């Protein structure tokens, strides 16, 4: 992952990578996303950065974590939050 130099901002790169992964894998609302460990391996970042990114996305209502089940994509398409989020992080 290239882009930001500050390690505290790595989670922003993870957010963007997650957005790209959701598009590339054609994931839909209700679909489960990979575990923190899998995402950490896939994006070559620490689990704490993945956890921070997932927390940010959950606060925005883009994903939902169900204890014991995993993390799932919420129905955000009609709100176009992903585009807004992409615009925000592109600056």
Helix content: 40-55%
SS-derived structural category: mainly alpha
CATH architecture type? Orthogonal Bundle
Anisotropy-based shape: globular
Count all strands and give the number. 3
Unreliable runs: none
Largest sheet: 3 strands, antiparallel
CATH class: Mainly Alpha
Strand content: 5-15%
Number of domains: 1
Widest sheet, order of strands: 1-3-2
What does this structure look like?
The protein has 4 helices and 3 strands, in the order αβααββα. The protein has helices at 10-24, 36-43, 47-59, 81-90, and strands at residues 32-33, 63-66, 70-73. Helices cover 51% and strands 11% of the residues. α1 packs across α3 and α2 packs across α3 (47-59). The chain has 91 residues and is mostly helical. A 3-stranded antiparallel β-sheet has the order 1-3-2. The protein has a single domain, classed as Arc Repressor Mutant, subunit A (Orthogonal Bundle), CATH 1.10.10.10. The model has no long low-confidence stretch (mean pLDDT 83).
């Amino acid at each position: 992952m290239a882009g930001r130099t500050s390690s505290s901002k790595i989670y922003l790169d993870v957010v963007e990578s997650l957005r790209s992964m959701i598009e590339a894998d054609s994931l839909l609302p209700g679909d489960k996303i990979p575990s923190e460990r899998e995402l950490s391996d896939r994006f070559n970042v620490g689990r704490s950065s993945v956890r921070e990114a997932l927390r940010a996305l959950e606060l925005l209502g883009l994903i939902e974590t169900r204890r014991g089940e995993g993390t799932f994509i919420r129905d955000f398409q009609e709100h176009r939050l992903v585009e807004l989020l992409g615009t925000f992080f592109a600056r």
